[in-house]
């Protein structure tokens, strides 16, 4: 977990500071530990973010705990109307939000709007909480006895979000938690928290009461405080496998519910009968879009049989993509998030060459006029990649595609199932029989058939598996209702004056 740099409070500086949101108020932190937010295309400092003090963290939790006592009893319809208003405000401020996101994260303006829109879909889903949170009833299960269940909120919940989707993933978390009647502590990535804070401001404007949503910033100390605090009942996390494993173990050891979406190494299989043009376009977009900084990016493609001959055309697609700052028109690939990220990606490319993979397209050090200091890496393609190579085993999180070969669909499936990760996978084919075999035999949580990034819409739940996920319930969809609520089952019998009491029943049977 990355620590922030120590410095004095920037209150006298001209650089803007990111505030905390506690009890409905935007507060200037009293922290002495701050981190610079750097535009990855220019290396300019655009703001400073505090690492909240233990006292500020405690204040946020206390605020959320106090607010829960009234929010939990707020009518479902009233909660739903807040999120109807919230989705309207997000739509009205889409361009502003996208501009903030691009400035601090680097992705293109079009991709930034996509980031926000996929989160907006979950906000819209939260407005349907009235039907999502219904319980069950069975009448007359015994003589005059009814049994029914109700889904009630847990209390204070928390979310820890990554840098690569600073709008979408926070919107995966707090709207559903709050719509279910919980209160929430959000810790966004310290690398790009500004768009998250703007979304939080809009949530308050939409009518979320003071204390129901709180935002704190920080690194390892805040993460551990979230895991340890006895008043926090559930933790949702999206990020690296290393940190996610730590969060899951620490939070569950403290008796909390936890869901952790973690690292990935997503594969696509291409059969020779696939639609070539559509497949190649999909592969290039999914491998290199967002500079490869997606947990659902297609970082490995397995060409089956004669599909191997398509590689030169795939390289042409990759070469056609424009690398530039996200604010520039016609940009396809923006910078990676930081100079450290760029160094890691280029270091892994060098490692792939040393290990014997063929570097058929080298995206290192592209020339980007006007943005010479930016953290740019262009589309990069390796062929001849084998299991055991570091570029295959590790999540590169950059625009690097590893190409492998298999003689059959069964061989390709075996390669994927041998990889420990299970976030997403895709098959490109025109054969229904091949698709059916793939669906049944692949051991991966999210499957695309001619769909390169099979992230489900909010009617369904995100279902990564194996080493990509800890916890048995995913974010949004039906599963997250179960995660953010506790089920109470009531068995009731009502007697009227005409009821004959009969003899004492000492068994467990209801008669």
UniProtKB/TrEMBL annotation:
Stated family: Belongs to the aldehyde dehydrogenase family.
UniProt keyword terms in alphabetical order: NAD, Oxidoreductase
One GO molecular-function entry: methylmalonate-semialdehyde dehydrogenase (acylating, NAD) activity
InterPro entries for this protein: Ald_DH/histidinol_DH, Ald_DH_C, Ald_DH_CS_CYS, Ald_DH_N, Aldehyde_DH_dom, MeMal-semiAld_DH
Protein name: methylmalonate-semialdehyde dehydrogenase (CoA acylating)
Broad enzyme group: oxidoreductase
Organism encoding this protein: Undibacterium terreum
Matching NCBIfam families: MMSDH
PROSITE patterns given in the database record: ALDEHYDE_DEHYDR_CYS
EC number: 1.2.1.27
GO terms, biological process: L-valine catabolic process; thymine catabolic process
Keyword NAD found: yes
Domain Aldehyde dehydrogenase span(s) in chain numbering: 29-490
A Pfam match: Aldedh
């Amino acid at each position: 977990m990355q620590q922030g740099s120590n410095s004095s409070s920037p209150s006298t500086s001209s650089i803007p500071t990111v505030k905390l949101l506690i009890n409905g108020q935007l507060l200037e932190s009293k922290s002495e530990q701050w981190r610079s937010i750097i535009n990855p295309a220019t290396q300019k400092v655009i703001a400073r973010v505090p690492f909240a003090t233990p006292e500020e963290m405690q204040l946020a939790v206390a605020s959320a705990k106090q607010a829960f006592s009234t929010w939990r009893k707020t009518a479902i319809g009233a909660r739903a109307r807040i999120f109807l208003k919230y989705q309207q405000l997000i739509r009205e401020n889409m361009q502003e939000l996208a501009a903030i996101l691009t400035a601090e994260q680097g992705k293109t303006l079009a991709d930034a709007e996509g980031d926000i829109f996929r989160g907006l879909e979950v906000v819209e889903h939260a407005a349907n909480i009235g039907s999502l949170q219904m319980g069950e009833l069975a009448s007359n299960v015994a003589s005059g006895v009814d049994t029914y269940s109700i889904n009630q909120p847990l209390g204070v919940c928390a979310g820890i979000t990554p840098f690569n989707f600073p709008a979408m993933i926070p919107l995966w978390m707090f709207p559903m938690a709050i719509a279910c009647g919980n209160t929430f502590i959000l810790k966004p990535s310290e690398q790009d928290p500004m768009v998250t804070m703007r979304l939080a401001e809009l949530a308050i404007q939409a009518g979320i009461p003071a204390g129901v949503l709180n935002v704190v910033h920080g690194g390892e100390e805040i993460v551990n405080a979230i895991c340890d605090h006895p008043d926090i009942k559930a933790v949702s996390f999206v990020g690296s496998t290393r940190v996610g494993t730590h969060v899951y173990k620490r939070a569950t050891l403290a008796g909390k519910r936890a869901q952790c979406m973690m690292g990935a190494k997503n594969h696509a299989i291409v059969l020779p009968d696939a639609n070539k043009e559509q497949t190649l376009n999909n592969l290039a977009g999914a491998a290199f879009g967002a500079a490869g900084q997606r947990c659902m990016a297609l970082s490995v493609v397995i060409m089956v049989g004669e599909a191997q001959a398509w590689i030169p055309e795939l390289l042409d697609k990759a070469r056609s993509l424009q690398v530039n700052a996200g604010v520039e028109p016609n940009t396809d690939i923006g910078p990676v998030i930081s100079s450290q990220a760029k160094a890691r990606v280029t270091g892994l490319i060098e490692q792939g060459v040393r290990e014997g993979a063929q570097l058929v397209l080298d995206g290192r050090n592209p020339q980007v006029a006007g943005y010479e200091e930016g953290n740019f890496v262009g589309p990069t393609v390796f062929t001849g990649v084998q299991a055991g190579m570091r570029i295959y085993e590790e999540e590169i999180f950059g625009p690097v595609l590893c190409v492998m070969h298999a003689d059959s669909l069964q061989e390709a499936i075996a390669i994927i199932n041998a990889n420990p990760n299970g976030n997403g996978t895709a098959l490109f084919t025109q054969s229904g029989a091949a698709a059916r075999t793939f669906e049944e035999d692949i051991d991966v949580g999210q499957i695309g058939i001619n769909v390169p990034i099979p992230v489900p819409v909010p009617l369904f739940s995100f279902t990564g598996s194996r080493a990509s996920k800890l916890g048995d319930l995913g974010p949004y969809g039906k599963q997250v209702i179960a995660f953010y609520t506790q089920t109470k089952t009531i068995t009731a019998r009502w007697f009227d004056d005409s009821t004959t009491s009969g003899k004492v029943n000492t068994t467990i049977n209801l008669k």
